[in-house]
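[step 3/7] fold_predict: job queued, chain A
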Amino acid sequence: MTILLFVICLLSLSPAWAQSPNKTTSACGIENTAFQGGEFLAYDLYFNWKFVWVKVGFASMSTVKTVFSGQEAYRTSLITRTNSKFDGLFTLRDTLVSYCDKDIAPLYHRKGAREGDRYYIDELWYSYPPNRCHLKMHAISTRGEHEWQEKEYQDCIYDMMSIFMRARNFDASTMKEGDVIPMPITDASSLKNSWLKYRGKETFKLDGTKDKYRALVFSFIEHDNGKNHELIRFYVTDDQNHIPLRLDMFLSFGSAKAFLRTYKGVRSPLTSKVK
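[step 4/7] structure written:
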């Protein structure tokens, strides 16, 4: 599960390099109004087994303020764990760590993932020469093989974690149902042809509680082998925080869901909660 990640408005993907010639990364950044250091979100994970949804584990996401390579940064960690007794049904043990500067431009990303029978590691280092986004990429395969690459792009490039943090700061108020937003996302191997589709608004009760929220609904879609695949459908609070409330994940080996269980340290009041 790569959660995260998640609320969008129409935005040009061409970076405005000329707007900030004296700053290293802010041309690929965005003003942060959605979250703060100290935020913690926890989720329950469910898997569909023989048409029954079974609780199989948990996920958590935490954000703290820190310093990376001498500059102020946010470190966001995403951990997903399934209970070992369900390993024959659904094995998921991922740890993702992302560093972004104070304007949410990515600096470093690491994913260590055990998904089914696979275990692999992806690492990305970002730098920003004039009018470019430079990536140093390191992948360790399930066979323990190391692959190093370096690539440079004219457009800003993101990973699954940094695009989530960036997306939480977009304003969806002007979007129309059906709008599609391209998203240049990479892992340590290749750039993905992917996008987000806005599906409108819903009000629903959070699983296992009496709480109801107004939510914005999006799909993350990837084009692979000549076909479009919806990977994640997610529901985020229709307020300044844009907290993911629910995620529906369409995996190669089945379907899974994640529901928000608890939160703390959020930046703004949850005005999306229906009283």
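[step 5/7] annotate
Residues 39 and 265 are 4 Å apart (CA to CA).
Confidence is low (pLDDT under 50) at residues 1-24.
exit 0
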